[in-house]
Protein 1
Amino acid sequence: MEIRNTVHPDDFKHYTTERIKKEFLVENLFATNEIKLVYTHFDRMIVGGACPVKPIRLEATKEIGADFFLERREMGIINVGPKGKVSVDGEEYTLDTKDGLYVGVGSREILFSSNDGNNPAHFYFLSSPAHRKYPTEIIEIKNAEPIHLGAANESNVRTIYKYIHPDGVKSCQLCMGMTILEPNNVWNSMPCHTHARRMEVYFYFDLPDDAVVFHLMGEPHETRHIVMRNEEAVISPDWSIHAGAGISNYIFIWGMIGENQTFTDMDTVNMEELQ
């Protein structure tokens, strides 16, 4: 497991491009038949990816100080690749592309597998500390709550699908969902916002190999950017904006933990404040 420490915003504004990537960018999430884990001390979120050619088990590591991975944690999983299965304590859940799964605290054995090992699933997941158990539940994208936002003249027509949230599949702390931009639309989360009560992770996918997203971060008066490519994630601290623009449309998964699960709890940044 890779560890990322917290960063003070006064230090962040002096970072080089390479240092920003080192602290916040999560690459190579889907190494063949491996599980990649990145632990950030921002609210102790774990970002993970699994690409199973044959079944692989999610194991606890020393960094979380537990006998099994979800002893004191919950997790949300979304499959961004071909069809696969997640087994939770012997019960198997089939996830097609863009389907999700919530797994509650106390679940002991998590196994990832693909329907076709020659064309493996790509399971992206987030895990947060939890003190209350909620039932494991599959979330098919067709049943996720959609919110239609944006305007063509602002190049941000998009649909937000809520997967794990207080009015849907419930969790202790974790909120998670997916935003799909329509063709010819490139902006996300603009006008931008912060929410000092929650950190967030963005995961970008469905990008052509030669396409990029310019992900914006930093305090509103000290913005920076990271060049993101397909199937990469970025950690967004509580003090940072999180927005972006691509050279084509794309999809991104968002996940949050912190003081509350109120989706609309955000501090909007006026355009004239951005620098």
Protein 2
Amino acid sequence: MARFKVGVQLHPQATSVKALLDAGAAFDAAGVDSLWVWDHFYPLYGDPEAAHFEAYTLLAALAARTERATIGALVTCNSYRNPSLLADMSRTIDHISGGRFTLGIGSGWFERDYDEYGYEFGTALERLHRLQRDLPIIKERLGRLTPAPVGKLPILIGGSGRKVTLRLVAEQADGWNAFGPPEGWAELNGILDDHCSAVGRDPGEIERTVAIGADEIDNVDAYVDAGVDHIILMLGDPFGIEPVERLIAAAAG
């Protein structure tokens, strides 16, 4: 059994839809456990006016082009879609994929998206409170849709806020994602366990993930020792398979 699951986040900037879908299909065939894109409307680094593509339409296409990996956004911005609509979009992609969709979600942070698309930015705490309000609506809608999702359709929350975000993970989520370094991730992981204890949740029910760059592949043992279950490699175009194969090999031990 692998020591951890392997995922890849494909950055939908400075690239083409064909390159994104070809990479997703290749990585799926290579054996990755999960495929992700981010949920933004503009590049997060490099040329701010480079080509960029929307997350959920890409996820639907990736679901149709792949066979085994789970599909999701790392992470969806809760502010960008009505919560009931988001539930329906997620359920539909779950059907396209044959039950492989994960709803990765967070409170949002990239101000340019909000400004240019006309969303209210507000404060970080206000956005977190909106996420807290909307998660039960999403779950309720998922329970009412006909037909229901094919798979479990787990909810993963991304974020590192010690007081609100990690408590929300303990209360509402099936998975949690944050960034390194390993010692910082380990500290947050311990805080999440404390929140689980406080709300009466079995911490083992929550899958622990971390997003890393290719320069961190040689350090995956430190993440495993810290308690990571699932390591997600972040890649921009060109989407070379070499670092993906290195991470798969590291997972195999």
Protein 3
Amino acid sequence: MGVVQARMEAALQRFLPATDIVPERLHRAMRYSVLGGGKRVRPLLAFAAGELAGADPARVEVVAAAVEMIHAYSLVHDDMPCMDNDILRRGKPTCHVEFDEATALLVGDALQPLAFQIMAEHVIADSSVEQIEMLKILALASGSRGMAGGQALDLAGVGKSLSLPELEFMHIHKTGALIRAAVVLGARCGHGLDAQEHGRLERYAKTIGLAFQVVDDVLDCDASTATLGKTAGKDAAQEKPTYVSILGLARARALAEELRAEARAALSSFGAPAARLRELADFIVLRKF
């Protein structure tokens, strides 16, 4: 994983505007928000899926960076006072604390189109039709029917009692949509999978996306702020419905293990080429931060 994480750090360094380009402050804030932190789970998934599909790593690098920029912008906005009002992210002050609220808003506004710009100006597919489809996949995963819509449902659910299916629907969009996009786009950079194999890969991605959120909810409950690099216990403090609040801590942990098993089962027909995807399923569920 370390090799991919280092490669992504270098790629993001290249793709982000330099701090000596006007407007310098905005570009400093963009780099502050993206570089030097995070697990890079979505790029790791993109590279693992790309490896399974025989993709050129240079293509995967572009889509992985694009997905990570969308993810970073969502964190910047999520931390703002009008959303979760958080002061700590990845072990350092959140963007609006380090800079200001207006700059943080603009960081998200700038990172989102930059993601689509780099996907549009690099060759990431064998045909223009396929490349446009990949842009559409990321757009859908990012918008009102994906991540942004899930965030709207999250805000609407504060202080309310949701059923488990309602909670899952919210997180399939808020967290899962971008994780699924990372896997799907990584695989689409290659050409080694048929329609059924793409379907199994999407099942893996959907399952592991839910598992990621279940584990996040567990960690928010029983890990420290120092370990997480973000404020622990904020879900309970803000009266947000979570897998822990609905199921209890023990059952939430068990659900994460069940989802891990389902994700690995979806990969059963791929054999050795899916080893990295299996490892990432384990990492996502067994992580402590």
